[in-house]
Amino acid sequence: MQVYKEKEAEDFLEKEGFTVAGRMLAGKRTLVDVCNKIGYPVVLKVAEKLHKSDIGGVIVDVRNDREALNAYRKLERLSKKVLVQEFVAGECFLIGIKRDATFGHVLAFGLGGIYTELFKDISLRVCPVCRDDVVGMINETKASRLFNARGRRLNRKAVENILIKTGVMAKRYSCITELDINPLIVNEKRAVVVDARIVFG
Ligand code: ADP
Ligand code: MG
User: Fold this and answer.
1) Ligand 1 neighbour 45 (Cβ under 6 A)
2) pLDDT tens-digit profile of 83-106?
3) What pLDDT digit, counting tens, does each position of 185-195 carry?
4) Which of 19, 21, 83, 121 is the most exposed, having the fewest neighbouring CB atoms within 10 Å of its CB?
5) Pairing of strands 42-46, 82-86
6) CB atoms within 10 A of CB 124
7) Which residue has the least CA distance to atom 20 on ligand 1?
8) Which residue has its alpha carbon closest to ligand 1 atom 2?
9) Is there a contact between 84 and 34 (Cβ–Cβ < 8 Å)?
10) Mutation test of ligand 1: which of 3, 62, 195, 198 has the most ligand atoms closer than 8 Å to its C-beta?
11) All residues at 6 or more sequence positions from 123 whose CB lies less than 8 Å from its CB, including other chains
12) Cβ(53) – ligand 1 distance below 6 Å
């Protein structure tokens, strides 16, 4: 079994054609340079850990060099390596894959971010999936109301395309036993992977 956590998983997904937030690893000396390369606002995260926010390992909306150094000071207690990521504004959704002994790959879509566990607002389809399947999946969730809430129109088509792409990828990599993209941040322009984990069996 092999597990790809955040950076490795994101690099893998980017090669597969997913839109992934700009990101670079940084140490104390390179931090300011890296943040400026990515461009403020950024997010700082402890690298190579799961459930990062549970341990205070994610600091979002860091706006300048001073804030970046302060955030780094908090994170370096948890890990010397810090991931600097482009900050993406929008709503959090999740996309997942689980390989089931009976059904094979099953695709999941739902509410992402910090409320995933609380609300369990998830729809499922057995792969392969077509456009109608993924449209149905999105519409079944309560989270789909976020697409047209607060006077915005989030890019629903981008999410449909990613769901289809995820299904195709599962077929190509039968060795994927689990995939979690959480969150996929969606705004009016795009749908961006900002955290992912992949398990190869
Ligand atoms: P973990 O799941 O390990 O706790 P995440 O990388 O998913 O860590 O980050 C936790 C939360 O921080 C996300 O659910 C999201 O709300 C926010 N977040 C993470 N990365 C970004 C980003 N690049 N842009 C905006 N918000 C982010
Ligand atoms: Mg996450």
Assistant:
1) yes
2) 999 999 999 999 999 999 999 999
3) 999 999 999 99
4) 19
5) antiparallel
6) 15
7) 194
8) 51
9) yes
10) 195
11) 108, 109, 110, 136, 137, 138, 140, 141
12) yes
